[in-house]
Design goal:
heterotrimer; A mainly alpha; B alpha/beta; C alpha/beta; B: 8-stranded mixed β-sheet; 21% strand; disordered C terminus; C: alpha/beta; Rossmann fold; 2 domains; 8-stranded mixed β-sheet
Chain lengths: 306, 341, 329
């Protein structure tokens, strides 16, 4: 007798039973970790601050009276002046600092986000494959990583700039191309220990092939270290971008980033302090908060009081 | 159709060694995990495999399932040699050959729900099966192993050790296998839970017509569940006989020593027994003694034992013994107390 | 016989994030000089925590109350400095995994002689000689050579012997062994139990053997105490409990353990799961799993009382008379 499952009556009974059951959702490891994270006050405050910065950076420009490349001829090199709407003052070209800081923050955040996504995507796949297959495959893949590590990345970025011009997209690619190396190493290390675990052996006994195991069993269990590492490298990425922009290899005028702003603000800091203070303040706050979040995540994902 | 007395599984001359690297410049050492393993398993029986550290019992279980590839030898499943099969073919047979692990929580993916874990082998090996049917089978299996179906969306860390082991058992059974290798399935569990799981395995074996290989270091547990018992020492078979034969009339000195060393939950018997306490410790499998590997600890060892490797002799009824002196050795009077009491 | 340890109303509580858990609840027992007491229980019974607290080795969020009198000294609540003088010298403890108990970067002889120098004031040479003698006494072959080795160069059984040697160097009155043979091979375990028996005889040490294995208890102990849910549920001489158990949990444990001489068709396991210490049942903690449970058991918790007037045996159960599963059928 064909039932819901199209097979025998017994199975149909069980299928009906399952439908009637109100099976409660379990408490996943992610939920546990989030609960622990929420208890960490420093991390929560940092998350709130970062969210605020992101919101202000992307929505703020609609509320600020001046555009980031707009020139106010009547106010060049002026300190903060609330009447004219220059809340953070103006730069040497008469452009509103607040608007520029917001735009710069936007750019730095976008670079950080994209570079992180790129490095995670490449790094996780590369590292998991190398770690799982082991042996010669692993040796070859890791030697490639070692060689790329040894190359000075500034040189690499300069070559890219020479070939493709000064393009912010390049910046993402360049930084992403560096960061994935460390991610791959970390993922490979984790994979090496994960593949010895019994549930992976159980999956092999269940007939799963290597790629099924990597995708279904190994990658989901990498979330912890990957998330922690990604959060802790965002500061690195922002600094790298700032450094590259400071050297003149990154963002093009009139667009700007935190690094570019700092690079313009530093030489005139004594005379026009507001040009340095604003972007530096944002950068420092962002980095500090991200570090707290990263620490909080590490404690949440690896509790000692288990 | 397989006749009831036909051999389901035949192992012939199985050999496995592991390479241990000791340093950049020195040659790697060879750890001889298994040597000259030859025996067979009949349909519907429970074969217990018992031994201490370094005996290779876990390696043997995994070699049978081809989770570890043996170096030499044959593993004949229903007449077909699994060691010669390409990976794709072997994968298809995995529905028939399953395994239950020692550490219940470590054998479950912490990021999957119970329902997903139990359904996993079905997803892989029966890809044509619809989700509804798969779920129905999962619920059926959960009830069969004594788990409440409402727990289907929970995660492994929300369960106790005994319940987690039930999940592992449900996963092993979902593809309706013919043979299950149980690798120390109760060693990590509390005593009262052990008994529940042992009873469960026995019921399931009858209900599903299974053949079991039960690996454990605990001779009392092995004796309780097994029809025949295979005793391993340092990678070699020393004795294979029925549970009663092993207990009443052990032929190999190591089997005797094991029996006297097993703790008995009976104070009067425990006081009477004369423990045939073995001297020394188990030698390293990297450098096993020449001739009979057991001779360094054997009371009955003679110079000949160092020169000749004892062949595995077949006695009546299919018993196996690997000792050149088994006919000559008498059971001392005192030992009768533990065995015959 | 004199008592070397008298534990009175010992309780151990752990502070968790939003609750408190009582791992040990009003434990009372005593230990006579030279005897071997087995403390039996499964996970969550509190058997290890009770002795860790007496030794002052509890985790940071643990609190002990009650008294543990070793002679005139109360071990509970001792200052660390005073505790250090007593630990290792009058009372010692060995654990299940000798690898984590021994310092992997120090040679064996260094770790052993350290104890002698500190507690008995020996000078270095005398300490090393005594240590080597003790290694021989615990059955380590070529003791002088082994003393120069590092822990990881020895096998599990060897390391456990080193632990025992270290614990006995100062000839303590009390030795607490927490599952000392669980991680060892069966033949090595047999050697170890023989060693315990001979050492306690020779040195007159009282031994507390914490274990879940009834076979080990039968082989080594004089008296035993069964714990469940943080309390003692039955105490008495080993023979008494094995042949005439008076608490259903003890009966259940006996029936759950496979006996190599009797091959039963089925074991009689105890139904249900060990209790969660945070949500103990009302009345007797064992009542959800008890085959002999009646109404009173659901309301009142049975106190630990003598089995009969003149008896030193105690049980925490309202059921009177001998127990057996035939009666329940």
């Amino acid at each position: 007798m064909a039932g819901i499952t199209g097979k025998d009556a017994i199975l149909t009974d069980y299928a009906n039973k399952l439908a009637r059951l109100d099976a409660p959702k379990g408490r996943s490891l992610t939920q546990d970790a989030l609960r622990r994270l929420v208890r960490n006050k420093a991390a929560v405050v940092s998350i709130v601050v970062v969210v605020l910065i992101v919101l202000v950076a992307f929505i703020g420009p609609y509320f600020v009276p001046w555009g980031y490349s707009q020139v106010d001829w009547s106010a060049i090199r002026k300190p903060p002046d609330f009447d004219k709407g220059h809340f953070f003052g103006t730069d040497q070209n008469g452009r509103d600092m607040l608007a520029r800081v917001l735009q710069g923050t936007q750019m730095s955040l976008i670079v950080a986000a994209v570079a992180t996504v790129v490095s995670v995507a490449i790094g996780v796949v590369y590292g998991a494959v190398a770690g799982y297959f082991g042996g010669r495959v692993d040796a070859v893949m890791m030697r490639i990583v070692d060689i790329m590590y040894a190359l000075p990345y500034i040189l690499f970025v300069i070559i890219l700039v020479v070939m493709f011009g000064r393009n912010p997209v390049l910046l993402f690619v360049g930084i992403g191309a560096i960061e994935w190396l460390t991610m791959a190493r970390i993922v490979r290390g984790q994979t090496l220990s994960l593949k010895e675990k019994e549930f992976v052996e159980a999956a092999r006994a269940g007939g799963a092939g290597p790629f099924t195991i990597i995708l279904r069993h190994i990658v989901p269990n990498l979330t912890g270290p990957v998330v922690i590492y990604a959060t802790l490298t965002i500061p690195e990425i922002i600094i790298a971008e700032s450094f590259l922009s400071y050297l003149g290899l990154g963002v093009q005028e009139p667009q700007t980033s935190l690094g570019t702003l700092i690079s313009f603000g530093a030489p005139v800091a004594e005379v026009l302090p507001w040009m340095l203070l604003a972007p530096a303040g944002v950068l420092v706050t962002l980095l500090l908060c991200l570090t707290y979040i990263g620490d909080g995540l590490r404690d949440a994902l690896d509790p000692k009081d288990r | 159709m397989i006749a009831a007395t036909e051999n389901l599984l035949e192992i012939k001359g199985l050999r496995k060694s592991f390479s241990i690297t000791t340093g950049l410049l020195s040659r790697p050492l060879e750890l001889k995990a298994l040597q000259d393993i030859t025996f067979s398993i009949k349909k519907g029986e429970t074969l217990g495999i018992v031994g201490e550290s370094g005996c290779g019992k876990s390696t043997l279980g995994r070699c049978i399932l081809q989770l570890i590839a043996p170096d030499e030898g044959q593993v004949l499943w229903l007449g077909q040699d699994l060691t010669r099969l390409p990976a794709e073919e072997m994968r298809k047979r995995r529905a028939d050959l399953q395994i239950i692990f020692q550490d219940p929580l470590a054998s479950l993916n912490p990021r999957m729900t119970v329902g997903e874990i139990i359904a996993d082998p079905l997803r892989t090996l029966r890809p044509g099966m619809g989700k509804a049917e798969r779920q129905a089978r999962v619920v059926r299996m959960m009830e069969a192993v004594g788990l409440l179906p409402e727990m289907i969306n929970r995660y492994p860390h929300e369960f106790s050790g005994g319940q987690a082991q039930r999940i592992g058992i449900a996963r092993a059974l979902i593809t309706e296998p013919k043979l299950i290798v149980c690798d120390e399935p109760v060693s990590a569990l509390d005593v009262s839970i052990q008994a529940q799981i042992l009873n469960l395995l026995s019921e399931l074996k009858d209900e599903f017509g299974l053949t079991l290989i039960f690996i454990s270091h605990n001779l009392s547990v092995v004796r309780h569940v097994s029809d025949r018992i295979l005793v391993l020492y340092l990678g070699r078979i020393v004795e294979l006989a029925t549970g009663d034969e092993i207990y009443e009339d052990p032929k190999h000195p190591y089997t005797r020593a094991l029996l006297t060393a097993v703790p008995i939950p009976d104070p009067k018997l425990a006081r009477q027994r004369n423990i045939d306490a073995l001297k020394g410790e188990i030698p390293s499998p990297i450098n096993p003694p020449s001739g009979c590997t057991f001779r360094t600890r054997c009371r009955f060892a003679k110079p000949r034992c160092a020169e000749v490797r004892p062949p595995l002799e077949t006695l009546e009824g299919g018993r196996l013994v690997a000792c050149i002196r088994w006919r000559e050795i008498e059971i001392p009077e005192e030992s009768e107390a533990i065995l015959g009491a | 016989m004199s008592k070397v340890l008298d534990v009175i109303d010992l309780s151990v509580t752990f502070a968790l994030h939003n609750s408190e858990v009582r791992a040990v609840n009003n434990l009372n027992f005593s230990l006579e000089a030279g005897e071997t007491l087995a403390v039996v229980g499964e996970s969550g019974s509190g058997k290890s925590q009770a002795f860790l607290s007496i030794m002052g080795l509890l985790a940071k969020n643990g609190r002990t109350s009650g008294r543990a009198m070793m002679g005139p000294i109360d071990l509970v609540g001792l200052e660390t400095s005073q505790l250090d003088r007593v630990r290792g010298k009058d009372i010692a403890m060995i654990f299940q995994d000798p690898m984590t108990s021994l310092n992997p970067s120090l040679k064996v002889k260094t770790q052993l002689s350290e104890v002698l120098v500190k507690h008995r004031g020996f000078d270095k040479d005398k300490a090393v000689t005594t240590a080597i003698e003790m290694l021989e006494r615990v059955g380590i072959p070529e003791p002088a050579k082994r003393a120069n080795a590092f822990p990881h160069e020895m096998s599990g059984g060897m390391r456990q012997r080193v632990m025992i040697a270290m614990a006995l160097l100062c000839q303590p009155k009390i030795l607490i062994a927490d599952e000392p043979t669980t991680a060892l091979d069966v033949t090595v375990q047999a050697q170890m139990l023989e060693l315990f028996k001979s050492l306690t005889e020779d040195f007159g040490t009282a031994l507390v053997m914490i274990t879940h294995d009834l076979g080990v208890v039968a082989g080594v102990a004089d008296r035993m105490m069964v714990m469940y849910g943080g309390r003692a549920v039955e105490t008495g001489m080993v023979d008494e409990l094995f042949y005439d158990p008076r608490h259903p949990y003890t009966l259940g444990l006996l029936h759950s353990t496979p006996h190599i001489a009797h091959r039963q068709a089925r074991l009689d396991p105890i139904q249900g799961l060990p209790p969660s210490l945070e949500h103990l049942p009302k009345g007797c903690s064992f009542n959800p799993r008890c085959a002999f449970c009646f109404d009173r058991c659901l309301e009142e918790r049975p106190p630990l009382v003598p089995v009969s007037e003149a008896s030193a045996r105690e049980k925490a159960c309202f059921y009177e008379g001998p127990l057996s599963y035939e009666k329940v059928a």
